[in-house]
Amino acid sequence: MQRTADGRLFNHFPYPDMPATALVEAPPALGASCKIHPAMLPDLTRLLAAADADPAIAGTLRAVSCHRSVALQQLTFCGGIGPDGSGSFAERAWASAPPGFSEHSTGYVIDFGSATAPACDAEGCFGATPAGRWLRANAARFGFEMSFPAGNRQQVKWEPWHWRWVGTSANEAGAVPARTMFATARTRFPAEPKVD
Fold first, then answer.
1. Which helix (H) or strand (E) holds 44?
2. Strands of 61-65's sheet, edge to edge?
């Protein structure tokens, strides 16, 4: 498997594996036990409070996945390849990053879901749910941007549930490391909606 000149493998950029000891528990309101980078906790807490204040989605926004170690990403990625070898690495990479190339390993990403539409978790239909529409309209105010919008030039599957945190501004505490980590992806393949 060859990488592109910019380091991508199957269109995914390489990312470091944040050690679990450097992460914190996500707020219990997300309904799942998962770990996140501590820098994003204040903005995530504010995002959840704003979502709960909106009667259209109050209490429905939840986490499907947060930090995934490189080892867990290997299981996730390889789990999509059939036991008989069906499905190529390239086909699998359309929907899931190879291990070592997932934004999830940074701790700065959450895959959101909706308690009222669990069948749409990690599916395109999430974008049409009230929770998906609310995130599209509001997440950037809290420093979150959709990494893989519809029709993205990075040629990765549209993931309306996948939101990376980069802080509300470059001056926000903890935002510089996140923005530095995602700088190439953000410059070459802008998020939509994106954070300025």
1. helix 41-53
2. 61-65, 109-114, 162-165, 144-146
> In angstroms, rounded to a whole number, what is the distance separating the alpha carbons of residues 165 and 179?
9
User: What are the pLDDT digits (tens) for 22-81?
Assistant: 999 999 999 878 999 999 999 999 999 999 999 999 999 999 999 999 999 988 887 766
Q: Do 113 and 131 contact (CB within 8 A), yes or no?
A: yes
Q: Which residue has the tokens 């070592």?
A: 100
Packing angle between helix 41-53 and helix 130-138, nearest 10 degrees? 130
List 112's β-bridge partners, or say none.
Answer: 63
In the beta sheet, which residues pair with residue 12? 9
Q: How far apart are CA 152 and CA 181, in angstroms?
A: 19
Confidence grade of residue 90 (pLDDT, cut at 50, 70, 90) = confident
Which residues are CB-neighbours of 5 under 8 A, at least 6 positions away? none
Which token pair is 181? 């980590």
pLDDT in the model for residue 147: 97
Closest-CA residue to 131 (of 52, 68, 195): 52
pTM: 0.93
Nearest of 30, 4, 14 to residue 105 by alpha carbon: 14
